[in-house]
Design a protein that fits this description.
Bound molecules: ligand 2P0
Helix content: 25-40%
Oligomer: single chain
Structural class: alpha+beta
Distance between the termini: 17 Å
Number of helices: 8
Shape: globular
Strand content: 25-35%
Length: 325
């Protein structure tokens, strides 16, 4: 069967996904909204071959660790079930950014894998079904299929067919920028799935967190429609702080931040006082991510770059959905 090579971008949630309604099907307890981030890309090449006795997975030029390889194989089993093939595949995947450091490599990774595998097997599948499929690999991967500004519906069905992401603005519709500071390039201390489950089952603030997501998502959608950056930015920062507050209140408390992350929050507040419209967000790792518009990007980038503990900055803009290359 044919070789297929695809490229997918990571995404940054402005309204966060943190908590599942179904662990097995990877269904979120609430919707979320994200920006698709160029140039944070994963490139994946796949070929299904009759002579293979198992899936072969290369990650960033090396044989993948067992944990990662079995996650890829588990996902390919779902695709094999859907398509009716029993062939194993060789998968060569490369991330253009630090893997598993809270920079959403699983989002671009499983979006790329879902598209590459279904294409290679000649499956007819629309973008919404593809998004729902990518979700099975990693929840946030659902949001790396469409491109631009994206909403992922929680959905209600138990089979997950209504839990997919769709675009609410194209990559060229609004020139938003994200400046990411790398505060620790190493792998994250707690996995997202584990952190979400611990928060769901032990945090006294989990219910309140979920209630707040519904309101934030509605208001964020309106802000996108109206291109109201102040509203979107305020919702973004609030959503991140609320998510981390719910996780911090888990038992044991989950702390993704390091000292540099906290300094970045202070920095963003100082920038705003000085008239630069910048908003903080952060995911399941310590890297601060600052959302701004094009006119403030240089100011934000040089401020973040000079923060002690930041080893590198990555400047991002809105990018496209998954594509064959
Ligand atoms: C998000 N995160 O909305 C949230 C905010 C991290 C914090 O989606 O368990 O790798 O595979 O569905 O998608 C990262 O978690 O988790 C994530 P699974 P995923 O971006």
């Amino acid at each position: 069967m044919k070789n297929v090579r695809v490229r997918a971008l990571a995404n940054l949630a402005l309204v966060k996904y943190f908590g599942k309604r179904d662990l097995q099907m990877n269904l979120p307890a609430a919707g979320s909204l994200s920006l698709t981030l160029e140039p944070l890309s994963t490139t994946t090449e796949i070929a299904f071959r009759p002579e293979l006795e198992r899936d072969m997975v290369l990650l960033d030029g090396k044989k993948a660790a067992d944990k990662f390889a079995s996650r890829v194989s588990g996902f390919l089993d779902i695709v094999r079930d859907m398509s009716g093939t029993s062939e194993y595949a060789s998968v060569v995947t490369e991330n253009a950014f630090p893997t598993a450091a809270g920079l959403a490599s699983s989002a671009s990774g499983f979006a790329a894998l879902a598209y590459a595998a279904t294409k290679a097997l000649g499956m007819t599948i629309d973008k919404e079904q593809l998004s729902a499929l990518a979700r099975r690999g990693s929840g946030s991967a659902a949001r790396s299929i469409p491109g631009g500004i994206v909403v992922w519906n929680a959905g209600e069905k138990s089979d997950g067919s209504d839990s997919f992401a769709y675009p609410v603005a194209g990559p060229d519709d609004w020139d938003l920028r994200v400046v990411i500071g790398v505060a620790d390039p190493g792998p994250k201390a707690v996995g997202s799935t584990e952190a979400m489950e611990l928060t769901r089952t032990t945090s006294p603030y989990y219910r309140e967190w979920l209630d707040s997501v519904h309101i934030d998502l509605m208001n964020a959608l309106r802000a996108v429609e109206q291109r109201n950056f102040t509203d979107l930015g305020e919702i973004t920062e609030r959503s991140a702080l609320s998510m981390h507050a719910a996780a911090l209140a888990g038992r044991p408390g989950i702390l993704f931040w390091n000292g540099t992350t906290v300094e970045a929050i202070h920095l963003v507040r100082r920038l705003r006082q000085q008239g630069t419209e910048a908003y903080f967000t952060c995911d399941a790792g310590p890297q601060p991510k600052i959302v701004c518009t094009k006119s403030d990007e240089d100011t934000v980038a040089s401020a973040l770059e000079s923060l002690p503990g930041i080893t590198r900055i990555i400047r991002c803009h809105l990018g496209a959905g998954v594509t064959e290359i």
